[in-house]
C-alpha cells in the first residue's frame, strides 16, 4: 500500500532520507517563509528598462512552412478556448479561471501561498490541472503564432491573459507561488513571450513598461533565489528553477540583483546538470520524459546565455551534447525512446503545434547545434522550436570524443538496448532504482523488459497516469506488478514510503551485456540480478536471436520458497488469445497484419487481465492523466530456488491478418 504524503509518518520517513545540510537549509526556508508572511520583500524601481534579447533577423522566415502551419492551427484552437491538459478537454481557455481544477470542479483556496495544502485534492483539486495552464506555455504558442503571422489578435490575447494572471496571482498569494519548478518554467515562458512579441507595438508596455509585470518578474526571481530545491529533492525541479532564473536574469537584466542571480543560477545549473546526468548521457532519474525535460531546459538556458553573450562553463554544453547523443542511441526506429520511470508530459519550451514529435525536435536541434553523427537515426518532420533555438545558440559542440558507433549498453545507468531484424527493439533494465535518497520518480521495475516491433509496444511499460489524489492508481503504475518483471509474495522489490518517496531501494547489477551478436545474424545476450526481495535474489537472462526473430527470457530465483507472480503487459494495440500457457498476439501496423507467439512458463498458472479496477490491473497510460485498458498476462505459482521460468516471444513476420 502506498502511504500518502502529509501524515506524521510520512514526514518522519521523509526526514530520514535527508542529510544534516538539507535539514538545515529547510529550517532556514521555514524561517524565511514566516518572515515573508508579515514583511514580504519589495521590488526596486527599474527606470529605463529595455529588452534587447531579440531574435536575429530572418529567424522567423526560416521556419519550415508545414511547421508554421501546424503552429497557427494550434493557436487558432487556443483562441477559440480549446485545449487539453492531462486528458481533460477544456473549452474555457479564452477566459480561464487560474485557480479552478476542471476535473474535480474544485477551486484552490486563497491566502498565503505556503499555507495552501496543495497535496490535498479534497481541499484544492488536482494540482497538476491547476498549475499546467499557469506555466503559460500555451501563451508561448500564441506569441509564436503572432511572430509567424503578424496577426495582432494573438498578441492581444497573450497580453490579456498575462494581465489577468498577474492581477489574480499577486506575489506570495495563492497556489501558484508554492512550487519552484512552476516559477522557473513560467519565467522561461515569459522570456520567450516577450521575445516573440517584439514586433508588436504593445510589447514594451506589457513587460518593461508595466510596473505590475516588473514586480512579478522580480518576485519570481527573488523567490527562486530564496527557496531552491535542496538535497534529496534536487532532481529535475532544480534544473527548471535554475534555467528559468538564469533565462530571466539574462533577458530581463533590469534589477540590482540581476548579475548576482544570473551567476548563482548558472552555478546551480552547471552543478545540477552534471549531477542529474550520467557520464553516458542518460538522466540519473532513469525517467525518459525527464531526460527530455532537462535537455529542453538546458538548451533553452544556453540560448539565453548566447543571446546575452554571457560565458558559460564548457561542461554545460558537454552534458547537453552527451544527453543528445544518448537520446539518439536509445530511440527505436520510430524515434520513440524508452518508457521508463515517471512521466508527467512536462516540457521546457513549447512553440509548436499539435502533431510535432518532441523527440524528433530534440534530435533536430541537436543536429543544428552539435552536428549529427553518422549512426544517428534519420529525423523526418519539422518543427518551430529548432529554428528558434538554433538562431540563438552558437553552433558547434565541445571538442570531445563522441561515440563512433551507436551505443547499446549504458553501464552507469544499467540500460541495455537489444536490436534485431524487422526493427525488433528491446530495453533491459539492470540499473539503479532511482536518483538521490528518495528516488522520487522511480518505479519498482528492476530487471523489467520493454519490447517493440517496428515501433509498436508488444511488451509494454504501462506508464505513469497520475501523481496526486488517486493513491491506488499511483501505486499500481509504479509497482513491480505493473511492469514486465517478477514479483515475490505480492510485494514490490523496493519499499514505498509515499507517492514520491522510496525508503528502501533494490540494488541491481548487470552480469552480461553482449549486444553485438544480433547485428550479424547471431544472438545478443543480457543478464542481470537484483536483491530487492530480502533473502532471495532474482536473476534474469534475455537472449535475442536474429536468425529466429525470437526473444528468450529466463527468470531464476535463488533463496527460500516464495509465492511468485510473473507479469507481461501487452501494448494497447495488441490482441491476445491465451490458451493454457501460450498466447497468440496479433496487431496491425501501417495497414499490415503482424503476429507473434508468446510461450509462457508452464510451471505457472496463467490468466489474462484487462481493465480491472479492484485492484487495478491491465492498463496502459499513453500520457499523464490518460489511461486505457490493455491486456496483462499474469502467471502465479511458487519458486523453490531450483529451476527457472522460461518465456519465449517469437515474431512471425509480416502479412499475418
**Broad structural category:** alpha+beta
Strand content: 15-25%
Return Rg in Å. 25 Å
The CATH architecture name of the largest domain reads Alpha/alpha barrel
Plain-language structure description:
With 657 residues, this protein is α+β, with helices and mostly antiparallel strands. The protein has 3 domains: 39 residues; 337 residues, Alpha/alpha barrel (Glycosyltransferase); 244 residues, Beta-galactosidase, Chain A, domain 5. Helices cover 33% and strands 21% of the residues. The strands form 7 sheets. The protein has an 8-stranded antiparallel β-sheet with strand order 11-12-13-14-25-18-17-16, with no helix packed on it. It has a 5-stranded antiparallel β-sheet with strand order 3-4-5-6-7, with no helix packed on it. Strand 1 and strand 2 form a beta hairpin. Helix 3 crosses helix 6, helix 10 crosses helix 11 and helix 13 packs antiparallel against helix 14. The radius of gyration is 25 Å and the shape is globular. The model has no long low-confidence stretch (mean pLDDT 94).
Amino acid at each position: 500500500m502506498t502511504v500518502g504524503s502529509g501524515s506524521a509518518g510520512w514526514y518522519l520517513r521523509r526526514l530520514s532520507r535527508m542529510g544534516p545540510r538539507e535539514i538545515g537549509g529547510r529550517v532556514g526556508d521555514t524561517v524565511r517563509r514566516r518572515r515573508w508572511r508579515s514583511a514580504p520583500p519589495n521590488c526596486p524601481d527599474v527606470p529605463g528598462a529595455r529588452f534587447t534579447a531579440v531574435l536575429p533577423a530572418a529567424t522567423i522566415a526560416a521556419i519550415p512552412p508545414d511547421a508554421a502551419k501546424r503552429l497557427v492551427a494550434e493557436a487558432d484552437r487556443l483562441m477559440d478556448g480549446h485545449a487539453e491538459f492531462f486528458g481533460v478537454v477544456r473549452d474555457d481557455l479564452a477566459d480561464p479561471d487560474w485557480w479552478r481544477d476542471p476535473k474535480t470542479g474544485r477551486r484552490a483556496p486563497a491566502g498565503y501561498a505556503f499555507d495552501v495544502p496543495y497535496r490535498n485534492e479534497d481541499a484544492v483539486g488536482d494540482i497538476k490541472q491547476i498549475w499546467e495552464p499557469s506555466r503559460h506555455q500555451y501563451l508561448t504558442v500564441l506569441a509564436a503564432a503572432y511572430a509567424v503571422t503578424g496577426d495582432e489578435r494573438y498578441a492581444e490575447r497573450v497580453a490579456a491573459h498575462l494581465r489577468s494572471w498577474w492581477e489574480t496571482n499577486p506575489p506570495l498569494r495563492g497556489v501558484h507561488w508554492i512550487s519552484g519548478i512552476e516559477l522557473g518554467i513560467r519565467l522561461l515562458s515569459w522570456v520567450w513571450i516577450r521575445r516573440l512579441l517584439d514586433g508588436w507595438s504593445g510589447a514594451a508596455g506589457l513587460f518593461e513598461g508595466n510596473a505590475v509585470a516588473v514586480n512579478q518578474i522580480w518576485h519570481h526571481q527573488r523567490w527562486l533565489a530564496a527557496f531552491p530545491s535542496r538535497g534529496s529533492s534536487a532532481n529535475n525541479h532544480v534544473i527548471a528553477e535554475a534555467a528559468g532564473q538564469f533565462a530571466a536574469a539574462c533577458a530581463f537584466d533590469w534589477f540590482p540583483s540581476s548579475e548576482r542571480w544570473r551567476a548563482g543560477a548558472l552555478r546551480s545549473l552547471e552543478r545540477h546538470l552534471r549531477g542529474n546526468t550520467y557520464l553516458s548521457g542518460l538522466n540519473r532519474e532513469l525517467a525518459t520524459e525527464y531526460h527530455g525535460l532537462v535537455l529542453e531546459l538546458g538548451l533553452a538556458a544556453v540560448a539565453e546565455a548566447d543571446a546575452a553573450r554571457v560565458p558559460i562553463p564548457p561542461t554545460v554544453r558537454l552534458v547537453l551534447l552527451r544527453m543528445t547523443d544518448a537520446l539518439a542511441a536509445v530511440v527505436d526506429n520510430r524515434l520513440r525512446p524508452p518508457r521508463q520511470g515517471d512521466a508527467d508530459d512536462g516540457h521546457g519550451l513549447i512553440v509548436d503545434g499539435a502533431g510535432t514529435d518532441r523527440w524528433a525536435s530534440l534530435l533536430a536541434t541537436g543536429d543544428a547545434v552539435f552536428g549529427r553523427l553518422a549512426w544517428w537515426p534519420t529525423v523526418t518532420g519539422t518543427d518551430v522550436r529548432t529554428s528558434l533555438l538554433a538562431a540563438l545558440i552558437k553552433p558547434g559542440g565541445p571538442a570531445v570524443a563522441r561515440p563512433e558507433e551507436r551505443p547499446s549498453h549504458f553501464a552507469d545507468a544499467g540500460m541495455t538496448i537489444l536490436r534485431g531484424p524487422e526493427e525488433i527493439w528491446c530495453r533491459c533494465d539492470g540499473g539503479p532504482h532511482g536518483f538521490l535518497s528518495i528516488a522520487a520518480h522511480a518505479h519498482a521495475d528492476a530487471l523489467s523488459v520493454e519490447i517493440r516491433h517496428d515501433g509498436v509496444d508488444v511488451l509494454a511499460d504501462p506508464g505513469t497516469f497520475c501523481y496526486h489524489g488517486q493513491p491506488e492508481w499511483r501505486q499500481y503504475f509504479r509497482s513491480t506488478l505493473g511492469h514486465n518483471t517478477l514479483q515475490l509474495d505480492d510485494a514490490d522489490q523496493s519499499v514505498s514510503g509515499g507517492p514520491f518517496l522510496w525508503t528502501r531501494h533494490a540494488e541491481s547489477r548487470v552480469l552480461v551485456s553482449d549486444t553485438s551478436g544480433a547485428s550479424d545474424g547471431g544472438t545478443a545476450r543480457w543478464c542481470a540480478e537484483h536483491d530487492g526481495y530480502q533473502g532471495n535474489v532474482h536473476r534474469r537472462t534475455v537472449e535475442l536471436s536474429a536468425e529466429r526473430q525470437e526473444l528468450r527470457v529466463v527468470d531464476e530465483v535463488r533463496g527460500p520458497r516464495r509465492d511468485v507472480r510473473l507479469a507481461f503487459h501487452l501494448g494497447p494495440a495488441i490482441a491476445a488469445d491465451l490458451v493454457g500457457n501460450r498466447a497468440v498476439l496479433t496487431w496491425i501496423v501501417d495497414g499490415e497484419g503482424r503476429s507473434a507467439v508468446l510461450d509462457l512458463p508452464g510451471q505457472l498458472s496463467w490468466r489474462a487481465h484487462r481493465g480491472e479496477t479492484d485492484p487495478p490491473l491491465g492498463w496502459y497510460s499513453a500520457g499523464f492523466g490518460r489511461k486505457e485498458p490493455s491486456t496483462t498476462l499474469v502467471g502465479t505459482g511458487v519458486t523453490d530456488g531450483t529451476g527457472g521460468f522460461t518465456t519465449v516471444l517469437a515474431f512471425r513476420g509480416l502479412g499475418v491478418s
